[in-house]
Specification:
Elements (H helix, E strand, L loop, with lengths): L4 H9 L6 H5 L6 H9 L7 E2 L5 E2 L2 H17 L1 H12 L3 H31 L10 E2 H8 L3 H9 L6 E2 L6 E3 L1 H15 L4 H14 L5 H34 L4
Antiparallel strand pairs: 1-2, 3-5, 4-5
Length: 247
């Protein structure tokens, strides 16, 4: 996170005013980006000089700092909504958006835990055990054959058809996929949330290579959590600046 102290000090040296370039340069932004942020409500409205030029204040520096700090943790769209709410004095709406974003992160962590538990509990069927028909697999999982057909329609399992009988035939990989789906369904996860994981398992050629993907997933969640902390500090500073009597 950039230090805005230098920008604020320059503000007072310039008689309490900042140009668009004074806001943009410390963050490697263009002056057009600053104008776009103002037009989008991410920054509060700027006053105009007698010649029509935009003039900014420390309030705008704090707003820009908050926006840029919030984006890595909350995403651009949510962060824009947070800043727009603050700038229209709807602070409760802004804080609710922050809370919802944290709740989503927690839900993502729970999903990762469920995925790891499901992968750990898998009991893959060795290839030498042969294929399974729908009734045999359904009995093994303790589900109805209709459930397996529903998973097939959702693309979660892909049995082939016996060319002579037309019956569904599940290979060892199909059984692995069905076991994984079953574990996640027991954990309360919807089919559309399970589908991306099954794709990962198939593309990796099995469960073992997914360990790297899971480590990356953990790292992304941790980075997002840290970014939320950084963003919270910057947003708090901006709220303090807005509430200052001499802002």
């Amino acid at each position: 996170m950039r230090d805005i102290g230098r920008t604020v000090r320059r503000n007072f040296q310039n008689g309490g005013q900042l140009r668009p370039v004074d806001l943009a340069r410390p963050h490697g932004l263009s002056t057009q980006a600053i104008r776009n942020y103002e037009a989008a409500g991410i920054l509060p409205d700027a006053e105009r000089s007698p010649h029509g030029y935009r003039t900014y204040t420390p309030l705008h520096a704090y707003a820009l700092q908050a926006f840029l700090a919030l984006v890595p943790g909350h995403g651009h769209q949510t962060t824009a909504s947070i800043m727009q709410a603050v700038n229209r004095d709807a602070t409760e709406d802004a804080l609710r958006l922050v809370d919802e974003s944290h709740a989503q992160l927690l839900d993502d962590r729970h999903t990762l835990q469920a995925v790891e538990a499901a992968l750990h509990d898998l009991d893959p069927v060795p290839q030498e055990r042969g294929d399974m028909f729908v009734g045999t697999l359904a009995r093994r999982l303790g589900i109805h054959p209709a459930t397996l057909r529903k998973w097939e329609r959702a693309g979660l399992v892909r049995p082939r058809r016996d060319p002579h009988t037309g019956y569904r035939v599940y290979s060892a990989a199909d059984v692995r996929d069905a076991l994984l789906v079953h574990q996640l369904r027991r954990g309360g996860y919807l089919l559309e949330r399970i589908a991306p994981l099954i794709v990962q398992v198939r593309s990796a050629g099995g469960v073992a290579p997914l360990e790297s993907m899971l480590r990356d997933w953990h790292a992304r969640l941790s980075a997002r959590s840290r970014a939320m902390l950084t963003g919270a500090a910057a947003l708090d500073a901006y709220l303090d600046c807005r509430s200052a009597p001499d802002r």
